[in-house]
Design brief:
Elements lengths: L1 H15 L7 H57 L3 E6 L4 E4 L14 H7 L5 H12 L4 E9 L5 E12 L5 E10 L1 H15 L9 H8 L10 E9 L1 H8 L1 H18 L5 E6 L2 E7 L3 H16 L2 E2 L5 E2 L2 E9 L6 H17 L4 E4 L3 H4 L11 H10 L1 H10 L3 E10 L5 E12 L3 E3 L1 H11 L2 H19 L4 E5 L2 H4 L4 H12 L6 E6 H5 L4 H12 L2 E7 L7 H5 L4 E4 L8 H17 L4 E3 L5 H9 L4 E2 L11 H6 L5
Parallel strand pairs: 11-12, 14-16, 16-17, 17-18, 18-19, 19-20, 20-21
Antiparallel strand pairs: 1-2, 1-5, 3-4, 4-5, 6-8, 6-11, 7-8, 9-10, 13-14, 13-21, 14-15
Helix pairs in contact: 1-2, 5-21, 7-8, 8-9, 15-17, 17-19
Length: 627
């Protein structure tokens, strides 16, 4: 077509050049050629318009295809996401809700104000502040809210949102996503409960009691009485009836203690057959009266589920706040001395703490001195002995492997400190480390441990990592980062092979200076592990705000009952995976512990079953892979 039109135009052009020598036929031909030229020109214009329209149609078709593909991708992402994707208009009403399972309790037409009214957890003032921020057109992240499900349970959500702007730039709504955090929150609540309660009786534990008596958390001028209880004859029940009967008896005792509490009082189990009560506002007379009624209640006969009758006695020691001390340690120490007096008086009675002559306390015989007094006598000389051990280079390191759950191979070696005192024999780390921290001796000890361990690891070679514990006192030293850098330089150990184990408490108590110190260590190439996760008041702030390379789960998880440890360990591992952190299960001492760690997907494991601490690093590396 294009060639034909071009030919017509050429012929028309020839007609324009036709000779006009008065020849009438020539004039007619000339007119014909002019008409042909005009027709060709019009045809060419029509063709070009048609071609242009065709190109526009093709472009629009391609753009429409791209738009549909983009919309399909967005739709697929929304359909496959576990998050709720939403939009609200300027009035705060939902216009788009992608909830597939109905767990959010939000539908099109609901308003943000409806959510605020239904929230059983978030304070109203937080909602008011958020709604005001939305009205100002401010984007937001990590807003937390909760809803009550149809079954009565509470679901927790985390929301991010951005404003939608109209053509004139005004805010015409918001869009964003809401993530269900219920599993994470419930796991943390379970961990917090576990950290603060006795797993057998459900009573608050020693940590709870210590917090209750902490001067920092008490009201000024508050009075209280601390009752320390010990069951007389409990060992006989355990020996004769068995541990199951003993556990059942402890639960029955806990029930009677709870029944005797007044509002504001707490009862806790400290361990074994030892319980403690805090009586809010009680003076000496009130405390003694309640103690005597407790004795009567607790010595009454018990009956186990199988009908077995049991009888026990109970001795109670009483200390008063503030007369006998300001903190848990001092009050429990005084209550323990009073408890000793009660037992010395024949048991099944109560005594108030006072000077030995007033409390009826005879000088305790040396062979059977109360554990508290023995510890006090022993600890008095411990700092001097520890300082001498440092001077004489009497401390030693041992090495314990951390194994891969996949094949049992050694992934890392943790170095541990040991002290064998000439006069005491082996001294447990949980005895001398606190003394070293209180006296400041932990600073030179920690530097020595780090230098010795790095030197040994550098000489041994390999690609495995060396793991070294850092104490809170050592971590607080401003020279820690240059100390680590200098030791790595002097020993020749690559920074990538060193991992420092920190605890969440030392980080959170010193944040943000801790975060800056961690940032500098990681910039050097040193790895960081969060140790003892799950042992205390678990807080995700340590994982959210500070980047770690490894999460070590506390050994206490594997000491739970068979019914508890699987779900609790699974929850901890789920938290580790949520933060994209490899995990180590500590305290693997039985084959079933090893099997559980692998079954639940832990990356690494550590414990006596997988290798006891060795004095020789080479021997630790050469320990056989467990079956």
């Amino acid at each position: 077509m294009l060639i034909l039109l071009q030919g017509v135009l050429v012929l028309g052009g020839l007609g324009l050049a036709w000779p006009a020598a008065g020849d009438s036929w020539g004039e007619a031909a000339r007119q014909i050629w002019l008409l042909l030229a005009q027709a060709g020109l019009l045809g060419l214009l029509a063709w070009r318009l048609r071609a242009s329209r065709h190109a526009q149609v093709e472009r629009l078709t391609a753009l429409n295809l791209q738009l549909n593909q983009a919309l399909k991708r967005a739709q697929d992402v929304v359909e496959c996401s576990n998050d709720l994707v939403w939009e609200v208009d300027a009035s705060g009403r939902f216009t788009i809700v992608s909830d597939h399972n109905g767990v959010e309790g939000v539908k099109i037409g609901d308003s943000v104000a409806d959510l605020a009214a239904k929230d059983p957890v978030t304070p109203p003032e937080i909602w008011v502040k958020q709604i005001a921020s939305n009205a100002a057109g401010e984007p937001f992240r990590d807003f937390r809210y909760s809803l009550r499900r149809a079954d009565g349970s509470i679901a927790h959500f985390l929301v991010n949102g951005v404003p939608i702007h109209g053509a004139d730039g005004t805010v015409i709504g918001f869009r964003g996503a809401s993530r269900d955090r219920t599993v994470e929150i419930e796991a943390l609540q379970a961990l917090n409960y576990q950290a603060l309660h006795d797993t057998l009786t459900g009573l608050p534990n020693r940590r709870s009691l210590t917090r209750r008596l902490d001067p920092a958390t008490r009201l000024e001028g508050e009075r209280a009485a601390v009752l320390l209880l010990d069951l007389d004859g409990f060992k006989t029940v355990n020996d004769v009836q068995g541990h199951a009967a003993g556990d059942a008896l402890l639960c029955l005792v806990a029930g009677r203690l709870n029944a005797a509490l007044r509002p504001g009082d707490i009862a806790s189990r400290l361990g074994g057959d030892e319980f403690a009560l805090v009586l809010a506002g009680a003076d000496a007379g009130e405390a003694m009266a309640l103690a005597q009624s407790l004795v009567q209640a607790l010595v009454a006969p018990y009956a186990l589920e199988d009908g077995t009758p049991l009888r026990i006695g109970v001795s109670i020691g009483i200390a008063l706040l503030p007369e006998h001390g300001q903190g848990a340690d001092a009050l429990l120490r005084c209550a323990d001395l009073a408890l000793y007096a009660a037992k010395h008086g024949g048991g099944s009675g109560a005594r108030l703490y006072g000077p030995p002559s007033q409390a009826g306390l005879p000088p305790p015989p040396s062979p059977a001195a109360p554990p508290v007094l023995q510890q006090l006598r022993g600890l008095a000389t411990l700092p001097a002995e520890l300082q001498q051990a440092i001077a004489e280079n009497a401390l030693a390191l041992v090495y314990q492997p951390i194994r891969r759950c996949a094949d049992g191979s050694v992934a890392a070696i943790e170095t541990l400190l040991r002290w064998h005192s000439p006069g005491r024999g082996p001294v447990a780390a949980d005895v001398f480390i606190p003394v070293a921290e209180e006296t400041g001796l932990i600073v030179p000890i920690g530097a020595w441990v780090l230098r010795q361990a790095c030197g040994a690891a550098a000489r041994a070679g390999g690609s495995w990592r060396l793991s070294v514990n850092i104490s809170p006192v050592q971590f607080s030293q401003p020279e820690l980062v240059p100390l680590v850098a200098g030791i790595l330089r002097d020993t020749g150990l690559p920074a990538e092979r060193l991992m420092l184990e920190l605890t969440e408490q030392m980080l959170l108590s010193r944040f943000p200076s801790a975060a800056e110190k961690v940032r500098k260590l990681r910039a050097m190439g040193v790895s960081l592990a969060l140790d003892d996760f799950g042992a205390g008041f678990a807080n995700l702030a340590a994982l959210r705000d500070i980047r770690f390379d490894l999460l070590k789960l506390d050994r206490s998880v594997l000491r739970l009952t068979a019914a508890q440890r699987g779900p609790v360990l699974a929850s901890l591992l789920q938290i580790a995976r949520a933060f994209d952190l490899p995990s180590v299960v500590e305290g693997v001492e039985q084959s079933e512990d090893w099997a559980l760690a692998r079954q639940l997907g832990s990356d690494y494991a550590q414990g006596y079953l997988l290798g006891r601490p060795q004095h020789d690093l080479g021997e630790a590396l050469a320990l056989p892979v467990p079956g």
